[in-house]
Design brief:
Distance between the termini: 54 Å
Helix content: 10-25%
Low-confidence stretches: none
Mean pLDDT: 92
Shape: globular
Number of domains: 6
Oligomer: single chain
CATH class of the largest domain: Mainly Beta
Strand order of the largest sheet: 7-13-9-10-11-12-8
CATH architecture of the largest domain: Beta Barrel
Length: about 550
């Protein structure tokens, strides 16, 4: 700013800065005032400076809210979504693979119909997606299920004949499969009115600024306006969202009545945790997803588009891909962690199928989880509380694998030892640390759609990346293949020890041909995954020894 500039510098925001700026100009423009500090005009200027500081605050906040990356209010995210033609989505139900089973082989085919309700002990219901049959002579069958309850023809209001009428739905309504019946007409759900004509019976569901699910009807130009004074009936699903991501073996009660052979009792379990359940989108979600929506325009052309569109799907936290020529293999990791259920995999495939590039062959799989175990000595400065420092250090480590750290949580991600040290030693109160050991627990990728029940550990002799395969040769025997070379025959429950790994496969329902593959990596080394899995850091896998502090 030049000496002749008559205006207050626009970067001055506080009342003190404005006062000093005004005071510096008195000798130039009002030289007759010699006692500036006690002059009434300057005293009034101090009041104006305080008013300006408040005005600047609100102007700055308003400007900030216009830019999505720095916005602080959810309502600003809603406005950004509207300007980008992005529909703010509601909750999505968790899904799980439910295994129905008998204690003895079935004497005849037993059909468990779609819509069968199962539940956890604390009454969180799941509903099966399709029919499944336990065939004669077998004891079990597995099917996908979603965590929701269905409500039909609930009265949500009356039409008024005006354009763009909005109706509120109850809390926890699932984002998809909402149906409105208005008079004798059935209205269908769309993401945008952009392709709707004045006669189309369409509505858009979305989350409003009060975090409630609403449905919006057409304006007579895009989307039909219903006749005045018609009752609006809504059919929808209600879900617990994130709370539906229950742990493995928590879904144990068969609620629906299923016809079974005399004297037999049908039981159920989920051998892997339920996952993919989400609550309604938050501002943080919108900051991530609106740019993905803008960049893809809901069309999968490049491999990166497939990843972005998968991450736009509710219930998917992260995605990765492998591609060759015209083939795209997409790997999804669900919200809430764990392994994506087949039900979620099918939904993502169905969602991408109509928007993928013509000629691309698409496959969707579950991404794996490679758990990272470590032992560390943490030296604490004097006068710092041990538990507080320990919790902060562990939280810093776990944060490396959180969704906020996009580099680390990618499929085929990496964990560097230097990052671990940095995470620990940036915790307040930590003097220094010594990482005693760090190693990954392998993920057994199923090749025959069956979860492996095993106990496995990596040993100090593991110094390279090695590929292993497990192939069952009978119901109780299996082969180990190391780097495509036969390694040995073993029995179920037998402890197998090599200089690289220690493993034991627990008893289960195995058949000829059941197979899995897994990779092991260097013990006490940087981890760079060479498989479609994510590196997982959790407090349960961190053994910390605290030295010093109080």
């Amino acid at each position: 700013m030049s000496a002749s500039d008559k205006f207050i510098g626009y970067l001055n925001r506080s009342s003190e800065q404005i006062e000093e700026d005004i005071k510096s100009k008195f000798p130039l423009y009002l030289p007759e005032i010699t006692d500036i500090d006690n002059d009434p005009l300057f005293q009034f200027s101090k009041i104006w400076a305080g008013i300006l500081e408040n005005l600047h605050y609100y102007l700055d906040r308003r400007t900030q809210e216009a830019f999505l990356p720095v916005a602080k209010r959810f309502e600003s995210g809603i406005l950004a979504a509207e300007s980008s033609n992005y529909r703010v989505k509601g909750s999505y139900p968790a899904s799980a693979d439910i295994t129905f089973y008998f204690d003895t082989p079935a004497p005849s085919n037993v059909v468990i119909p779609a819509g069968t309700i199962v539940s956890t002990e604390d009454n969180i219901p799941f509903v099966t997606k399709q029919n499944v049959t336990i065939t004669t002579g077998n004891t079990q069958a597995t099917v996908g299920a979603f965590q929701y309850q269905k409500y039909q023809n609930i009265n949500i209001g009356t039409t008024n004949g005006q354009p763009s009428q909005v109706f509120l739905l109850p809390e926890k309504v699932v984002d998809y499969d909402i149906i409105l019946t208005i008079g004798t007409n059935v209205y269908g759900q769309v993401d945008t009115f952009f392709f709707s004509t004045k006669d189309d019976l369409h509505f858009i569901p979305s989350i409003n600024k009060d975090n409630r699910m609403q449905v919006k009807l057409g304006d007579g130009i895009t989307g039909k306006i219903p006749t005045n004074l018609e009752t609006v009936l809504a059919s929808y699903y209600v879900s617990e969202g994130l709370n539906g991501n229950v742990g493995a073996n928590k879904i144990t009660d068969v609620i629906s009545s299923v016809t079974v052979p005399s004297g037999m009792i049908l039981k159920c379990k989920n051998t892997t945790k339920a996952s993919g359940g989400t609550n309604a989108e938050t501002l943080i979600d919108l900051k991530k997803r609106i740019p993905l929506h803008r960049s893809t325009l809901k069309r999968a052309v490049t491999p990166e588009d497939y990843v972005a569109l998968a991450e736009l799907y509710p219930g998917v936290e992260r995605a990765g891909e492998e591609h060759s020529c015209q083939s795209i293999n997409l790997y999804i990791y669900p919200t809430g962690g764990g392994i994506a259920s087949q039900a979620l995999i099918d939904d993502v495939y169905d969602y991408l199928l109509p928007i993928k590039m013509f000629g691309h062959k698409l496959n969707v799989y579950a991404a794996g989880e490679v758990q990272i175990k470590m032992k560390v000595d943490i030296y604490i400065l004097p006068n710092y509380v041990k538990n507080t420092v320990l919790n902060n250090a562990i939280n810093n480590i776990v944060a490396l694998g959180s969704n906020k750290n996009k580099v680390k949580v990618k499929v085929k991600g990496k964990i560097a030892i230097g990052d671990i040290y940095q995470a620990i030693e940036t915790a307040e109160g930590v003097d220094y640390s010594d990482l005693i050991k760090i190693y990954p627990i392998p993920y057994a990728k199923p090749l025959t759609n069956k979860v492996l029940d095993w106990e496995v550990d990596i040993l100090e002799g593991s110094q390279n990346t090695v590929s292993w395969k497990i192939i069952f040769s009978s119901s109780t025997e299996y082969q180990l293949i190391r780097n495509n070379a036969f390694f040995g025959n073993y029995n179920v429950t037998q402890q197998v020890n090599t200089n690289e790994i220690s493993l034991k496969i627990n008893a289960g329902s195995y058949v000829l041909g059941d197979s899995w593959e897994f990779k092991i990596y260097k013990y006490n080394g940087n981890l760079v995954l060479e498989e479609p899995s994510l590196p997982i850091l959790s407090s349960d896998n961190i053994e910390a020894n605290i030295i010093g502090g109080i």
